[in-house]
Amino acid sequence: xxxxxxxxxxxxxxxxxxFGDMMTLILTFFILLVSMAKTQEPGLIAxxxxxxxxxxxxxxxxxxxxxxxxxxxxDKSRMKFGLPTKAEELAAGEFDMTTSLELLRTKAAExxxxxxxxxxxxxAMFDPNSFELNYDARRFLDRISTTIRPAKRQILVLEGHxxxxxxxxxxxxxxxxxxxxxxxxxxxxxxxxFADERVEARAWLMEITGPEDVATRSVxxxxxxxxxxxx
Length: 231
Fold this sequence. Notes:
It is a single chain. The chain has helices at residues 14-36, 42-57, 67-80, 86-92, 106-110, 135-148, 170-192, and strands at residues 115-125, 155-160, 199-203, 218-226. By secondary structure, the chain is α+β, with helices and mostly antiparallel strands. It folds into two domains: 16-92; 101-230, CATH 3.30.1330.60. The protein has a four-stranded mixed sheet with strand order 1-4-2-3. Helix 2 crosses helix 3 and helix 6 crosses helix 7. The chain is elongated. The N and C termini lie far apart (88 Å).
């Protein structure tokens, strides 16, 4: 009696072979791009990996992950490269802003001249001596986020206002104004996926104080488009 023929084991589906080849080629392509870069910056690679993981975990949809969850993913990604978290990195590089009235990113501002702009006043209102976004401010930003989202080659400039000391401590007011603009910038980036490089935070340096002047406790916005776009 002849030997019983061996049963053939089922292999992977045919499409998995092509899929595996495609993913390997894509991975090789990006590794090649990184290797050809003029400078090797682990921070950029870590942030790119973090962005991929956020998109994967949220299935490409907004609102699935909170801002804190997204930040935890980015922090974990940076730790894999031996880098500090963004918050620690910014804290290590901070300078005393209260000693200077220049609180703008002048390089980006100068690059926008000449330009056209669309004002967006009172994007967020703050309590006296506070730079914390309250519930009403967050909900208003949620409703208007589509309107103020920078389009291609646009910049959203956020200008913080503060005259909480009624002119008694201008350095403190300038610092508070900048912090208010920064917290609005952070909220739009983390919760509405605004591009980091398209949102600028600055302080309005000359405040006109007055009794119950709530305009000096706000953050205004300006959608700026360089004129070169239309040339």
